[in-house]
Fold this sequence. Notes:
Layout: E1 8-13, H1 27-46, E2 50-55, H2 58-70, H3 80-103, E3 112-114, E4 118-120, E5 133-139, H4 141-151, E6 154-157, E7 163-167, E8 174-175, H5 178-186, E9 190-192, E10 199-203, E11 209-211, H6 218-228, E12 233-237, E13 244-245, E14 253-254, E15 257-259, H7 260-268, H8 278-289, E16 294-298, H9 303-307, E17 313-316
Parallel strand pairs: 1-2, 1-12, 2-9, 3-9, 4-10, 12-16, 15-17
Antiparallel strand pairs: 4-8, 5-7, 6-7, 10-11, 13-14, 16-17
Amino acid sequence: MTKPESKLAILAVGGNSLILDEKHKTVQDQYDAAEQTCVHIAGLIKRGYRMVVTHGNGPQVGFILRRSELSRHELHEVPLDSCGADSQGAIGYQIQRAMHNVTRDWPSPPMVATVVTQVLVDKNDPSFQKPSKPIGSFMKEDDAKSHRAKDGWAVVEDAGRGWRRVVGSPRPKQILELVAIKRLLEAGIVVVAVGGGGIPVVLKDDGTLIGADAVIDKDLATSLLAAELKADLLIISTAVEKVCLNYKKPSQQDLDTITLAEARKRLAEGHFAPGSMKPKIEAVIEFLEHGGAEAIITDPPHLVDAVEGRTGTRIVA
């Protein structure tokens, strides 16, 4: 068990990292991918870090929605907030089982617990008025317009491939299970939390909470969690070993260590693609602006090497 005074690292694992390619989508395939990632997470724990693991869930929520659509002639459809909760539990279970299996021979294996996490968003967030985040499967135009009329969905045509539902992506404001996460960390437990950016909920005027049809960016939610926990290190795991300028161009340049000021400058210059590296850089900037000391962006196989300074991109305040 790690000591409470050891350094705290918050690690964001991409949802797509659980699905290696189109031929490996089954639940067993996802578990196998999770186990490979947990080998590298275990390497960080072995080096003394306390850990909170967050994760994406975009593909998994898409699968749940598709199953719901296909079975609607017999069963009720599953609302988006419940899809998020379902995926948090399922992916958390995979990580818990995988961590047990990869550390089972340790003298004192770490205990892992998943917190199904609600994240408060502003009911007046502008993204609710201009939803743009695609979710679920492609639909025919008639089905899309039927959902718009009957269910109030926002739908858009996607480059000739069909129609898709779109929802808002509001900014995370508060992690409602923060105290529970802190208590688990104090007990030396590795925590899986804020899966998929958290389940977005809004506060009604009477003080009750309701789920929102929205998707929170998981890197921004992870950044908020890291700031509120006063983490020593934010790690964002992605598909590349290092952040690059001019990505996939002849002039591509790997970034080793950059400052917060440099990160802001490169972001403003448009070097990072929306929906790809841009939200990760924005999340790092927010963490550092709220008192964080350093962040790392790298891929899962290089987590330990990056933390020990041998690779990855390190961003410092």
